[in-house]
Amino acid sequence: MRCKILHQSTTTSESRLAADILQWVRSHYPDLVKCRRYLHANPEVSGCEFATAAYIAKALSAAGLHPRLIPQGNGLVCDVGAPGCDTPTIAIRADLDALPLQDLKSVSYRSTVANVCHACGHDAHTTIALGVACALAEMQAELPGTVRFIFQPAEEILPCGSLEMIDFGALSGVSQIYGLHCDPHLEVGNVGLRVGALTAAADNLIVRLTGRGGHTARPQLTSDLITALARVVTDVPAIVARKVDARSALLITFGVVQAGTTYNSIPTHGYVAGTVRMLDEGTWRSAPEVVSDVVNQVLAPFGADVSIEYLRGRPPVINDAHCIEILRSATVLEMGSSAVRDTPQSMGGEDFSWYLQEIPGAMFRLGVANPRERLELHQGTFDIEEEAMGVGVRVLARAAVRALNYLASTPTSIASTAALQTEHLDIQVAGGISANGTSTMKIIENSID
Question: How distant, in Å, are the alpha carbons of 80, 116, 118, 138, 196 from that of 109?
Fold first, then answer.
């Protein structure tokens, strides 16, 4: 049900701020392009975003702000506004890291780092958040509260960088959080919105086998690990899908199969690794036990020793209805009602979800598509239509102002927090394997310890 926030309802101060933001975007659009192209040409992989963080910190300082680097130096936070014990604080998050992929484009801002490129739009996310911060810095005395900008490392890997920022205290005193993600399937000028689950939960799974090897002429004398691994790849996804509610769309896909070195020798060890994705949080919480039980059942006839590592990744991004309505109204006011697009839930994972386990918030999808050529995320050819950055700054800045106004007028109405149930660690699973083999399972929580 849509919250009762009228699209056309604005205060005089908000309208004045909106006009100032629009003027800032028009005046500084070349700076946005320059910043994004610099970041695109100088990418850093997850956990190594030191030069990127320093670049953003320098830009924020030049705008008269006071950024604070996290202890590792590859992430930072920065407050903009008029802090006070009676004024609200909301957050805007951007991710800094690039992917270990070769940049395949022939453009002037092509990556200068071998086998590293911004193929997921994080350079645009960072530039847009920086633009919002610099724009609001010029009018912060008029803001009805504080906007905290979170520039986080390591979105693309586990452990997630969002947990590192939470441990740093990035959400201290924050009532809501907003973020965005580039969408190459939406054309520039459009904004994709969805209440509830926006992404899937995403975990990692590794199954390691050890057993008796031998000659391929006599597999009956061995644990036949190649066949056993093949059964994991083909049977486990199908059986697990029958053990959970079909509406959760639990999907297991393996990306690594490794065993053996020659054609006529059955190896003594091997492993498979992949991802486990699902659409709802309830299934995500029960998935480790369900998956491990099925793996053990499938492998029981082979008599191999089984080690299962289930690495918790990230829960689904669950968009708060109030926050989506704020984004919807901001989009309508800035871009018109035709710019709002319903967007489907994705099977991709996004560590913005960990912030939403703590406080309400929402992520929107920003149209960056070139209508002449469809480019996919996580490919070395990925690029954006740069006009999208102006749209992103306008929508996100307007949403920040509207969120602060709304919180200031109804400070307790949407400041609830969602508690995350802590999972247990290092679970040893007995049973489900033959007497000739053993099975252990470890659930590895996504923490920065």
Answer: 30, 13, 11, 29, 37
Going from the C-alpha of 154 to that of each of 44, 129, 141, 151, 192, the distances in angstroms are 10, 17, 33, 10, 24
Enter the DSSP assignment of 8: T
Give CA 77 to chain center in angstroms.
Answer: 18
Determine if residue 115 is left, alpha or beta; phi over 0 gives left, psi from -120 to 50 gives alpha, anything else beta.
left
Does one domain contain both 37 and 107? yes
* 95, containing H or E segment: strand 89-95
155 included as an active-site residue: yes
Domain of residue 72: give its range: 12-196+317-409
Calculate helix-pair angle for 321-335, 387-409, nearest 10 degrees: 130
Catalytic residue among 44, 49, 95, 155: 155
Is residue 309 very low, low, confident or very high in pLDDT (cuts 50, 70, 90)? Answer: very high
What's the mean per-residue pLDDT of the chain? 91
CATH number of the domain where residue 367 is located: 3.40.630.10
Supply the pLDDT for residue 278. 96
Report the number of distinct structural domains present in the chain. Answer: 2
d(CA 97, CA 306): 35
Is 97 an active-site residue?
A: yes
Q: Buried (b) or exposed (e) across 93-113, using 16+ Cβ within 10 A?
A: bbbbbbbebebebeeebebee
> What is the b/e burial string over 276-305, where b = at least 16 CB atoms within 10 angstroms of the residue's CB?
bbbbbbebbeebbebbbbbbbebbbebbbb
Looking at the structure, tell me whether residues 77 and 151 fall in a common domain. Answer: yes
Residue identified by tokens 């040893």 is 428
pLDDT value of residue 122: 98
As a whole number, mean pLDDT of residues 174-195 equals 97
pTM for this prediction: 0.88
| Residue tagged active-site, from 44, 97, 203, 385 | 97
**Inter-residue contact 33 to 25 (CB < 8 Å):** no
Q: Give the lowest-confidence range in 3-12, 40-49, 134-143.
A: 3-12
Q: How far is CA 349 from CA 146, 157, 177, 198, 442, in A?
A: 29, 11, 18, 9, 21
Point out which residues pair with 79 in neighbouring strands. Answer: 148
- 26 belongs to a structural domain: yes
